[in-house]
Amino acid sequence: MADSDQDGQASTAKAKSKKKLFILGGAALAVVIVGAGGYLLLGRSGGAHEDQAAAAEEKVAAHAPAPAKAAFLDLPEMTVNLATADTQKQRYVRLAIALEVDKPEMAEAIKPMMPRVLDSFQTHLRELRPEDIRGSSGAYRLKEELLRRVNVAVAPARVEAVLFKDIVIQ
């Protein structure tokens, strides 16, 4: 009986040592994987990787089309009162906007239609509440709506983007 107890303890000790060895091996493997990943993500020492990146950028630049000659058309600064439930306290938005067009000729074609563009913008802005403009998502929605409205007002000319130079809610 004493031999069977010793055999049981020996097999339990072997199982525990195998378990420890397995855990230590797994931890060592994890350290190697993390180290290799960090090495690849943060870059290798030496200039070979940087040279390859520079060569790839030059190749892309050589085949890229020449940048378009965009033109920008500044609108006069607008201050418009916003829709509020409280009639005692008025809220205002002050905007400075630039319109981006793909050609300078397009900017010249849009200039005579500026009163129509400004009217469309101010009519829309007066219906907004201060909450509608807050945050980046509100500014993005406003920009998209103003782009839609300006393209309707200047058709058949086309505006590529509405750019906010300044936007303040008072």
Short description:
With 170 residues, this protein is an alpha+beta fold. 59% of the residues lie in helices and 16% in strands.
* Structural class designation: alpha+beta
How would you name the CATH homologous superfamily of the largest domain? Answer: Band 7 domain
- The CATH architecture of the largest domain is 2-Layer Sandwich
Named CATH topology of the largest domain? Tetrahydropterin Synthase, Chain A
As an assembly, this protein is single chain
* Domain tally: 2
Q: What is the residue-mean pLDDT, rounded to a whole number? A: 81
CATH C-level name of the largest domain = Alpha Beta
Name the overall outline: elongated
User: What Rg do the Cα atoms give?
Assistant: 33 Å
Number of beta strands: 4
Q: Estimate the helix proportion, in percent.
A: 55-70%
Unreliable spans: none
Number of helices: 6
Keywords: Cell inner membrane, Cell membrane, Cell projection, Chemotaxis, Cilium, Flagellar rotation, Flagellum, Membrane, Transmembrane, Transmembrane helix
Subcellular location: Cell inner membrane; Cell membrane
Function: Controls the rotational direction of flagella during chemotaxis.
InterPro entries: FliL (IPR005503)
If you had to describe this structure to a student in words, what would you say it looks like?
The protein has 170 residues and is an alpha+beta fold. It folds into two domains: 2-63; 71-169, Band 7 domain (Tetrahydropterin Synthase, Chain A, 2-Layer Sandwich). The protein is built from six helices and four strands. Strands 1, 2, 3 and 4 form a four-stranded antiparallel sheet that branches. Helix 4 packs antiparallel against helix 6 (135-154). The longest helix is centred in the first third of the chain and has 41 residues, at 2-42. The radius of gyration is 33 Å and the shape is elongated. The chain starts with a helix and ends with a strand. The mean pLDDT is 81.
